[in-house]
Recover the amino acids of this structure.
């Protein structure tokens, strides 16, 4: 009966994530219109000697996009003999100038590409080199080969299974390879369905996931497990069928994999539509909120314009640095989260602590008495300590009085007086120091949406996982 319920549920999900023929035709018309503009610009500006051809890619070309969520990826394939500077220059120029009517803008991955919103559809114009298979010059060169491979290998039914998997991952907020998410990319979803056949087989695999068997590959004969682990140091190894040396799992965080493992187990035990619905309203029990709010601090600051992946990478590094620095001083961080508001150019870090205050007393442990030079150095360094002693294990110890016992006051003091101690990412330092504010939600301030959402994330338990 349960298996029948799961199959019915998947059929229902498909009705919500498979695009209509009308939507498909709208996308095709938009893609062809953009391709025509690109070709016209290339011809009118005598750039044909640089360009080999223009091809469609991504989920649009492979027929795996989610209903009402398609991006159109168009790859402009350059002659592989040209210099990288020319490739980058004309890659930007062709995209920008061809789409001037649609207010195009630059995005950045391994190299710049152009994005525009056309009739509500996001269109990406991505330059790549026209290279022989395996002779990659840029990160985007594999993409046309990915498209050809999946178009050839995925059946119509499997394409729909990819859509179900994407919706499942999206609802769990682990869909997308961007640094902000560090989840499963659309291409990884396609590889998983090609490997396991169906959405159900995929979640069954992850529900029984064992660490020492976390290698996923289409061709089992390509290399041994030992060799894979020697080459790839990541929690999950997913080999790219187009480039067996490339690990698609390197962009997926341990947390994203763990989320999929737990969610797969619970879904199979109790399949329901909640696993395919994005929960944007995080409801927190009032008693829990009242218990934890005094143990939270929020760090907010503005930042100057930069690509999304850049600011997210910097913010995540900063969050780790703040946690490491605070814990070294004696504070205990239980949970953390961070968020970027690209519309407001604002970053928020949220920390849930065991307590926002700690004792003014701290016991510093030194070496054993047998280590003569180390003991002498320890005594010299800690001369100002009012109390020194030996413990029962012959270790030297001394008492230190902390200057700060409140984490909010401590971080404010350090950021104003000795910010280099924290390890702030270089590109973020001035933005942080010029605009940071630190709050404790217990102050009953009127917080904006970003801060309220950050606080909710710190207190939220997803019952689809636990």
């Amino acid at each position: 009966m349960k298996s029948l319920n799961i199959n019915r549920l998947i059929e229902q999900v498909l009705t919500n994530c498979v695009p209509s023929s009308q939507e498909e035709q709208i996308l095709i018309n938009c893609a062809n219109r953009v391709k025509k503009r690109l070709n016209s610009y290339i011809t009118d500006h005598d750039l044909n000697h640089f360009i080999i051809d223009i091809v469609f890619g991504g989920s649009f070309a492979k027929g795996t996009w989610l209903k009402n969520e398609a991006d159109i990826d168009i790859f402009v394939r350059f002659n592989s003999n040209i210099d990288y500077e020319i490739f980058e220059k004309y890659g930007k120029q062709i995209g920008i100038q061809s789409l001037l009517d649609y207010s195009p803008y630059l995005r950045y991955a391994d190299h710049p590409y152009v994005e525009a919103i056309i009739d509500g559809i996001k269109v990406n114009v991505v330059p790549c080199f026209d290279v022989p298979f395996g002779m990659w010059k840029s990160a985007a060169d594999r993409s046309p080969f990915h498209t050809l491979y999946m178009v050839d290998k995925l059946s119509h039914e499997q394409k729909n299974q990819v859509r179900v998997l994407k919706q499942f991952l999206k609802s769990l907020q682990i869909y997308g390879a961007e640094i902000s998410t560090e989840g499963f990319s659309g291409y990884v979803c396609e590889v998983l369905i090609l490997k396991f056949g169906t959405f159900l087989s995929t979640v069954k695999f992850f529900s029984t996931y064992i660490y020492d068997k976390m290698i996923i590959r289409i061709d089992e004969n390509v290399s041994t497990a030992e060799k894979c682990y020697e080459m790839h140091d990541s929690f999950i190894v997913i080999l790219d069928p187009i480039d067996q040396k490339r690990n698609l799992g390197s962009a997926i965080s341990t947390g994203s994999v763990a989320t999929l493992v737990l969610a797969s187990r619970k879904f199979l035990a109790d399949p329901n539509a909640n696993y395919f619905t994005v929960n944007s309203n995080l409801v927190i029990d009032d008693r829990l909120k009242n218990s934890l709010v005094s143990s939270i601090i929020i760090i907010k600051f503005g930042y100057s314009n930069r690509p999304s992946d850049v600011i997210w990478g910097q913010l995540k590094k900063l969050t780790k640095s703040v946690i490491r620095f605070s814990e070294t001083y004696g504070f205990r961080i239980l949970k953390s989260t961070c968020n970027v508001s690209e519309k407001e150019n604002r970053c928020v870090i949220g920390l849930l602590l065991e307590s926002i205050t700690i004792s003014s007393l701290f016991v510093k442990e030194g070496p054993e008495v047998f280590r003569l030079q180390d003991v002498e150095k320890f005594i010299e360094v800690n001369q100002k300590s009012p109390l020194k002693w030996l413990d029962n294990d012959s270790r030297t110890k001394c008492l230190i009085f902390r200057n700060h016992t409140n984490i909010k006051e401590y971080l404010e003091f350090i950021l104003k007086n000795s910010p280099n101690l924290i390890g702030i990412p270089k590109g973020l330092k001035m933005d942080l120091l010029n605009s940071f504010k630190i709050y404790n939600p217990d102050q009953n301030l009127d917080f904006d949406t970003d801060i309220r959402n950050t606080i909710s994330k710190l207190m939220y338990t997803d019952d689809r996982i636990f």
